[in-house]
Inverse folding.
């Protein structure tokens, strides 16, 4: 069976916060529905945390796809639709919370002139209950013609029925330990309930009402109309009307898909050779037509979408992400769109845009393209680009206007000691970043958002500060400190000011502050021997103690010997020695990763010292030698290897943790079946296996956290040496454009604690650089081409990646010096 890509038509922004690592697991938090007030296309209702969003996708890129976003008072468990009041002309939205449900009407008010339409949610019904809710079922129970009723399934498995906000009755089940899927069949007025014993039971609405009180008083059991034991857990259920007399019930299990008639007759069963995650059934044609077709879409664990008709696989394609919910929608210019909700909280609308070639021996059909149509499309693109360029110029003008009325001053205070200490008995220091905002005309500014960007282990007490009312002068103070034992890489804090003026225009202003050396370092006694050496040549000499003004002379007197001083990082106790020899400063450490942060601080304080003493025509350049180039480049390649090695180890532990989690869930399900059976089965072996699995999960989770920290530390070392390589190239290379291309290719500033996929992005950029800038031959490009069916961190691809970086640096150094500045580096790097 051929595999085809599903074409993406529309996608929303990420719903989840970047710091939320748990993923989007609630498949009931999305609903596709068409309202009378938006009858031209379907809308997509999404519950994200306590926020409800309603999307109406458009083809036009400049149109807003979201029509309303509302903050509710509680977490949203499920969203649904129906007609829940007598006078309802349009379908209403019902939202289930842990201890309540609410019904809303979507109102639309057409705007005048350029104001646009206004959408709002009007509350109709609110009802609270004492038990914890799990899911919601709505429908015309009892063959109601006037409105829909509401059924709430609680966490104990009991079903509670409501007419609007009026309680009707409750059904309690003793054989439900964990609530399962429940669905309602309108054509036959039946409820299908999944028990904890993996048994499907069907009851009529009249049965549930009659036996609700009788079972409590007499202890009699309600006898189902028909049952079925699939022998596995049922993940989800769906009912669809397929004929004038019957409806079809589709049940998705862990390895099978079952299709029943509502009278209990099984129509067919499909056994999967993959792990399904969700499904959606839909009908082509009307149910009363004899030629109508029932199709079922099933999403798999490996992000595949399979379309079945009966037990025949019609289609197989790739999804963009792992889906936890599927649906169909009809929007403008697109009939039959495929809606998927991913674990990352992203809603995608796609369509099966390619037609599979069922006749492989037939001739290929090519679509005839009109040249005039292509020319018109190119003209539209050019006009759009001109509009974008014009908007950028307007934005620059707006930024200059904001900078004239808003004056920003950023300063950092001297570190102070706190009571907290690291494991190596180093004291934790804290500095204060003070920002002074002075606005000459506060009425012209609506709000200001201040964002602090930093790299671990540096941490700010506040990440984002929002100011809505500016009163002339605002003083904001934020603490900065070192957290953890990770190596220091970037000693700066970048502050981004997002200013919104009274007209709604947004301006961005960036500031940067250098952290004091005393915040992350302390003077110590000299270290006798170091392996890495970096020399900086100046045309004038200064006292080392005068340059580092963060420390007082009394603090440095005991450690300055022969005009040299040694600093130790507070997080790792690694040392860096600075020696002043005539008009040069020599940096010595065990690794170039340790030299770079102190080197950057030295240049910053060196320039400030010259400015304070009005010293001009001062130059400070690195003394570049062939040994320095070779050693720094070799260390950079070793850092790439170590970073990839740590990422591979982390991936191994994450995969093991995923397997153990699935194993624990499976054992738990088997144990529940044993508990729920009559009489209960022997559970000793399953209990032992569950405890053992839980213990392994805890241990692997701890190792995963340790290796996450190792990956971040390796990323910091990679960035430090990489920036040092770029600094040397900027000083050496006369071709600034080529060095700028290398700096953009490496993209070292993209590495952060949340993003460590550096090798994937740089691999393609380095291939392009070799092919187009260095202009290697086709034979060389073929040797360095990645293996497409392997991961970038695989042994073969990693070797080629390191070789690409080595070739680029060799070529650049050779162009500058005219000779081979780097020799036999590939033999010094041992690839994993």
């Amino acid at each position: 069976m051929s595999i085809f890509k599903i074409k993406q038509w529309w996608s929303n922004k990420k719903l989840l916060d970047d710091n939320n690592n748990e993923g989007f697991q609630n498949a009931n938090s999305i609903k596709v529905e068409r309202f009378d007030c938006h009858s031209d296309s379907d809308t997509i209702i999404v519950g994200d945390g306590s926020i409800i969003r309603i999307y109406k996708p458009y083809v036009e890129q400049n149109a807003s796809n979201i029509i309303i976003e509302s903050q509710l008072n509680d977490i949203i468990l499920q969203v649904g639709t129906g007609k829940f009041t007598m006078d309802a002309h349009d379908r209403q939205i019902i939202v289930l919370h842990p201890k309540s449900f609410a019904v809303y009407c979507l109102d639309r008010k057409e705007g005048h002139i350029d104001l646009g339409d206004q959408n709002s949610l009007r509350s109709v019904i609110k009802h609270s209950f004492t038990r914890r809710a799990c899911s919601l079922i709505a429908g015309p129970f009892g063959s109601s013609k006037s409105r829909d009723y509401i059924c709430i399934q609680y966490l104990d498995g009991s079903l509670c029925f409501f007419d609007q906000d009026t309680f009707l009755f409750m059904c309690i089940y003793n054989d439900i330990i964990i609530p399962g899927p429940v669905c309602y069949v309108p054509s036959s007025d039946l409820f299908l309930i999944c028990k904890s014993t993996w048994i499907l039971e069907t009851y009529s609405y009249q049965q549930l009402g009659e036996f609700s009180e009788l079972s409590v008083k007499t202890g009699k059991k309600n006898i189902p109309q028909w049952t079925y034991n699939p022998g596995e857990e049922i993940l989800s259920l769906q009912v669809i009307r397929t004929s004038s007399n019957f409806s079809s019930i589709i049940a998705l299990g862990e390895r099978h898909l079952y299709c029943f008639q509502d009278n209990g007759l099984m129509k067919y069963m499909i056994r999967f050779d993959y792990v399904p995650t969700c499904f959606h059934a839909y009908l082509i044609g009307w149910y009363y037509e004899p030629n109508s077709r029932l199709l079922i879409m099933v999403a798999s664990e490996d992000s595949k979408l399979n379309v079945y008709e009966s037990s025949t696989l019609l289609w197989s394609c790739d999804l963009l992400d792992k889906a936890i919910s599927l649906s169909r929608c009809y929007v403008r210019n697109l009939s039959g769109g495929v809606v998927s909700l991913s674990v990352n909280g992203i809603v995608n609308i796609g369509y099966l845009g390619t037609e599979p070639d069922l006749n492989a021996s037939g001739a290929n059909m090519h679509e005839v393209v009109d040249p005039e149509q292509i020319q018109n499309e190119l003209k539209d693109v050019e006009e759009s680009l001109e509009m974008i360029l014009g908007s950028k110029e307007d934005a620059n003008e707006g930024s200059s206007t904001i900078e004239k009325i808003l004056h920003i001053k950023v300063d950092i205070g001297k570190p102070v000691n706190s009571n907290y200490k690291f494991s190596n008995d180093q004291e934790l220091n804290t500095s204060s970043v003070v920002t002074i905002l002075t606005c000459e005309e506060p009425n012209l500014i609506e709000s200001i958002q201040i964002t602090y960007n930093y790299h671990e282990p540096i941490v700010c007490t506040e990440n984002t500060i929002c100011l809505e009312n500016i009163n002339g002068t605002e003083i904001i103070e934020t603490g900065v400190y070192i957290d953890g034992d990770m190596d220091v890489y970037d000693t700066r804090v970048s502050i981004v000011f997002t200013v919104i003026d009274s007209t709604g225009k947004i301006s961005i202003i960036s500031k940067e502050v250098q952290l004091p050396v005393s915040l992350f370092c302390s003077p110590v006694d000299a270290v006798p021997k170091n392996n890495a050496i970096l020399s900086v040549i100046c045309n004038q000499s200064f006292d080392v103690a005068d340059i580092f003004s963060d420390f007082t002379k009394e603090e440095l007197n005991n450690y300055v010997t022969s005009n040299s001083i040694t600093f130790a990082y507070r997080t790792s106790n690694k040392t860096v020695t600075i020696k002043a020899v005539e008009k040069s400063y020599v940096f010595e450490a065990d690794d170039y990763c340790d030299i770079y942060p102190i080197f950057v601080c030295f240049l910053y304080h060196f320039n400030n010292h010259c400015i304070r003493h009005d010293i001009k025509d001062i130059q400070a350049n690195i003394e570049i030698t062939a040994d320095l180039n070779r050693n720094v480049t070799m260390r950079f390649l070793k850092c790439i290897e170590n970073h990839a090695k740590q990422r591979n180890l982390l991936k191994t532990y994450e995969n093991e943790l995923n397997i153990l989690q699935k194993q624990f869930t499976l054992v738990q399900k088997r144990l529940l079946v044993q508990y729920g059976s009559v009489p209960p089965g022997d559970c000793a072996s399953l209990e032992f296996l569950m405890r053992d699995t839980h213990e392994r999960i805890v241990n692997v989770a701890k190792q995963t956290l340790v290796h996450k920290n190792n990956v971040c530390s390796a990323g910091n070392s990679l960035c430090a040496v990489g920036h040092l390589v770029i600094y040397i190239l900027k000083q050496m290379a006369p071709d600034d454009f080529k060095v700028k291309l290398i700096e953009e290719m490496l993209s070292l500033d993209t590495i952060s604690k949340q993003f460590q996929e550096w090798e994937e992005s740089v691999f393609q950029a380095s291939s392009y650089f070799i092919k187009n800038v260095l202009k290697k031959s086709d034979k060389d490009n073929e040797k360095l081409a990645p293996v497409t069916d392997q991961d970038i961190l695989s042994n073969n691809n990693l070797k080629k990646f390191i070789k690409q970086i080595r070739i680029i640096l060799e070529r650049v150094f050779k162009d500058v010096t005219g000779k081979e500045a780097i020799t036999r580096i590939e033999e010094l790097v041992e690839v994993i």
Remarks:
- Residues 629-827 form one domain.
- Residues 626-676 form the longest helix (51 residues).
